[in-house]
Target: Methylated-DNA--protein-cysteine methyltransferase
Amino acid sequence: QVNSKQGGSPCEEKQVVLLSPLGRIEISGCEKGVHEIKLPKTNLLPRGAEPSAACQVCEGAEEMPEPLQQCTAWLRAYFCEPASTGSLPVPALHHPLLQRGQCHPGTFGEAVSYKQLADLAGNSRAARAVGGAMRSNPIPIIIPCHRVIRSSGDSGNYGGGQLMKEWLLSHEKLQKEKLAQ
Model:
């Protein structure tokens, strides 16, 4: 057992590994919700941003709490059938950063700048603070900090690396264009 991420009673943390087009994604959580999603550190990503059928749980499938089941289902849909993510429940989240209220930047396939997000939060000069909040996001992809870009249009930094951020943005843009056809 580990201490609850909220500082309350201990929770029994479980882990699951999802093999995705980006590599091994490690997901941890408990019965109360997802604690963290760790993206792979990689310099090699698949060519193109087409949906992939290659996305499956490879470790930890036994005794997976419901929030982890929902998280893996949501991520598999994101990579394999992106149009279906809207019909799936977003898993419960169980992390202290998320208890303070977390923004969900942008709509699928659309980017927003750090400055625009700061404006939405009511402080147009807080773009650097927005960047700091995005850096500390424990639940990437589900809380889509990859959609936050620089005002110049450059992708900016990302915990999973700039190549991964650009792949995620391309993946979403391609899927959005296909749905519009």
Notes: The chain is about 30% helix and 15% strand. The helical segments are 66-80, 96-99, 114-120, 127-135, 162-180.
